[in-house]
């Protein structure tokens, strides 16, 4: 049995979704930082549990041909670039595989093509926003990044994936904080003044916003600090102060003050101007965000008479980008400042058919339906936790033809797609987009389409009065598909499952909008697939 500090020769066989190497020894799975598939290493055991362990590279015996030899290990150790040791073409392949694996393992989807990940021509120095902690290290005020899984600051001046001008502003601010003897925050003692520096820079405009995150309102000699930094960087149009006096990992507190200039910067995306406030969400990679949103627009095949709901609308970036193509856009966002930005951005671009409210997405959806607003397209761009079940059900109830789902977390996206499929939608297209080169994160655009009632036996669920029979509640369509694929390696459609369920006397709800066509041609399930589906129904005790 392996124990701590043992050294053993292993081969790396895979990567985790976060970019750690995977090795298997004595029935245990080990996770190893800075190790790539096909590499043979001497591994030092760091920790061993019942089934898994953690190790580190003691020596490389055989290195991967795809290894990036030039990476500063600080970027790996801080998590800034946790895939930076892998060549960029291989990073893109890794991300495509992540999307495919999640869709199959979580949603049971194997029959929808996942396109190759769209990458950047120059996949470094792209971030238009930095959030940098300020701490004391060896008695000196430093800026940098926390070591992975810790709050120990690693001093850094070049962040590798950030706009170089932002890096320069951070270093200048660090030096001024030292010069004016402003005390950095101490987490253990909960003392000190300056917690974080946040810097935004417009990709096209070049405008810069600086945010000083402090523990209290009064910052000694802050006017002199601002005067000095503006001398060095005249592109600074906004200096804000955020007050966060809570013992929390959250960057921002609730209180904001304008110290210099305006409370926003302006930048462009897909030909529109956007005002971006301090707390507002704005994609950190403008170049690839434009490709991401354009993909969503293309997927949705927008028409002039479309009514679009833009859920999690932020400052209106995607909603205002589609407004010129459609009849109306209705956006919802929970952050009040972002909603105000959305409204101003609509005015700024002379867009009169976009309407924004501050609310939860599911509440807004219900209110719009009550007001007779019938969407044909829903655009969703949720945070990493994905959509709530209540939102998915509310959005499915609208009967929208198409849902374009923009995801920053493939696992929650797959979970959400699985539920949408149970509610009468079908996954049509998937396109990963690399918004975060050098990291394990991947953005994905997925198109869901309401099942065509002329070609499918559909199931319409009344969400408020759900009354499932015992048979219907046993297994979802996605679970049946997964079972059939795993056991028989056959791909079966929702239509075929519905046909066999009907044949077995399992009652199907009638679709509220039944086809009026007299001569609709519906493809019939093959005998081979019928037997496989029957086996699944028996397995789930539905027959």
Task: Give the gist of this structure.
By secondary structure, the protein is of the alpha/beta class.
How does this model look, in words?
- The protein is globular.
- The model is unreliable at 454-473 and 510-520 (pLDDT under 50).
- The chain folds into 4 domains: 7-67, Nucleic acid-binding proteins (OB fold (Dihydrolipoamide Acetyltransferase, E2P), Beta Barrel); 129-269, OB fold (Dihydrolipoamide Acetyltransferase, E2P) (Beta Barrel), CATH 2.40.50; 285-450, Rossmann fold, CATH 3.40.50.150; 477-539, no CATH class.
- A 7-stranded mixed beta sheet has the order 8-7-6-9-10-11-12, with helices on one face. Strands 17-16-15-18-19-21-20 form a 7-stranded mixed beta sheet, sandwiched between helices.
- The protein has 13 helices and 21 strands.
- By secondary structure, it is of the alpha/beta class.
- Residues 1-59 form the TRAM domain.
- Its EC number is 2.1.1.-, 2.1.1.189.
- It is an enzyme of class 2 (transferase).
- Belongs to the class I-like SAM-binding methyltransferase superfamily. RNA M5U methyltransferase family.
């Amino acid at each position: 049995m392996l124990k701590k500090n043992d050294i053993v020769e292993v081969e790396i066989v895979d990567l985790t979704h976060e970019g750690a190497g995977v090795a298997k020894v004595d029935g245990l799975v080990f996770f190893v930082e800075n190790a790539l598939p096909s590499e043979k290493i001497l591994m030092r055991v760091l920790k061993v549990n019942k089934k898994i362990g953690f190790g580190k590279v003691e020596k490389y015996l055989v290195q991967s041909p795809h290894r990036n030899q030039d990476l500063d290990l600080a970027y790996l150790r801080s998590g800034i670039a946790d895939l930076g040791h892998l060549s960029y073409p291989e990073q893109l392949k890794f991300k495509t595989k992540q999307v495919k694996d999640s869709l199959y393992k979580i949603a049971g989807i194997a029959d929808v093509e996942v396109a190759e990940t769209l990458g950047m021509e120059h996949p470094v120095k792209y971030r238009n926003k930095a959030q940098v902690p300020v701490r004391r290290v060896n008695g000196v005020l430093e800026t940098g990044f926390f070591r992975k899984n810790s709050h120990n600051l690693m001093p850094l001046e070049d962040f590798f994936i950030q706009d170089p001008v932002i890096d320069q502003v951070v270093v200048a601010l660090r030096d001024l904080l030292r010069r004016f003897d402003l005390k950095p925050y101490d987490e253990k003692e909960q003392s000190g003044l300056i917690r974080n520096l946040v810097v935004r820079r417009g990709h096209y405009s070049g405008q810069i916003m600086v945010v000083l995150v402090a523990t209290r309102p009064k910052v000694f000699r802050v006017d002199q600090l601002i005067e000095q930094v503006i001398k060095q960087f005249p592109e600074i149009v906004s200096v804000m102060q955020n007050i966060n006096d809570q013992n929390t990992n959250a960057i921002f507190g609730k209180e904001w003050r304008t110290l210099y200039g305006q409370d926003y910067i302006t930048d462009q995306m897909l030909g529109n101007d956007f005002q971006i406030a301090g707390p507002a969400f704005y994609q950190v990679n403008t170049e690839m965000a434009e490709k991401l949103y354009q993909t969503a627009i293309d997927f949705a095949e927008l028409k002039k008479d479309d009514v679009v709901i833009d859920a999690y609308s932020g400052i209106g970036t995607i909603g205002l980008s589609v407004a010129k193509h459609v009849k109306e856009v209705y956006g919802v966002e929970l952050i009040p400042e972002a909603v105000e930005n959305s409204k101003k951005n609509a005015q700024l671009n002379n867009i009169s058919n976009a309407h924004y409210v501050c609310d939860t997405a599911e509440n807004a959806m219900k209110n719009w339906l009550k007001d007779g607003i019938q969407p044909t397209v829903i655009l969703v761009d949720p945070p990493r936790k994905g959509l709530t079940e209540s939102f998915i059900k509310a959005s499915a109830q609208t009967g929208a033809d198409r849902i374009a789902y923009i995801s920053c977390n493939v696992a929650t996206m797959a979970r959400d797609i699985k539920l949408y499929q149970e509610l009468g939608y079908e996954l049509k297209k998937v396109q990963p987009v690399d918004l975060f080169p050098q990291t394990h994160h991947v953005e994905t655009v997925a198109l869901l389409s309401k099942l065509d009632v002329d070609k499918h036996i559909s199931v319409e669920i009344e969400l408020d009065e759900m009354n499932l029979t015992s048979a219907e509640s046993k297994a979802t369509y996605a679970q049946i598909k997964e079972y059939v694929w795993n056991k028989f390696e056959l791909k079966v459609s929702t239509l075929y499952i519905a046909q066999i369920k009907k044949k077995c006397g399992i009652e199907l709800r009638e679709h509220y909008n039944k086809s009026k066509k007299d001569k609709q041609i519906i493809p019939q399930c093959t005998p081979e697939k019928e037997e496989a589906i029957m086996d699944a129904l028996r397995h789930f005790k539905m027959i």
